[in-house]
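User: Second chain of the day. Same drill as before.
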Amino acid sequence: MFNESHLLGTIDRTDSSRTRRVGAFHTRPAEEVDASILSVIEREAFPAQWPPTRFTNEISRRRAVYMVATRDYMEPEIPEALRDQRRLAHSSMWNRVSSGLRQFLLLDESKSAGFPKDYIVGFVGVWFIVDEAHIVSIGVRESVKRVGVGELLLLSAFQQARKHGCKELTLEVRASNNAAQSLYRKYGFQSVGLRKKYYIDNAEDAIIMTTPPISSVEYAVMLDSLARNHAERWGHLPEPIA
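Assistant: Same format as last time:
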């Protein structure tokens, strides 16, 4: 068993005001009010998936956790006259539209005070089965792919596995998804089996991948280094673990 200071320890304790850049993403636990947004992201990321995930049930599931990647809105200084106009505008029916609908419409770049506090761009779902953490899904909006969000969510899954005392992580990945397999191998996942015709949309096989024991010092040091590199490159931070 390794000391807790190893696995992502440096990233957990880093001063976010220095490390996280403006526009960078961070993670937090999903809440029930996020369910409709996660459904939108799932449809965008996995248009052929059936049946759709019932996120309200999943978020409240025992022995499971869903984490979301979000970006905080930075409110600019608003002149007093404009603030008065906005206060009047907020009383209109349109401005009572929920933050969920605003995110559904992918209204991402506005600085309006009427927009939601944070903008959800992806999620990861993890089930805890005995001493194993199983990643059931990682979904990311098309608009933020290739900027480190998927890797951020993977790091968050590792944090949750540690938090729940799991010995290893497992997942399934499409046999044709070479990019995802490459990311998982970077984090030490190894192919251990095959689920024939696992995906119902095209009967594609799923490769079962699992990590070595994440409690080993060697693995913890490797993971800490990967987390450092990711934070330095993108400025994104997983949710700290106390």
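The longest strand covers residues 118-129.

User: Great, on to the next one.
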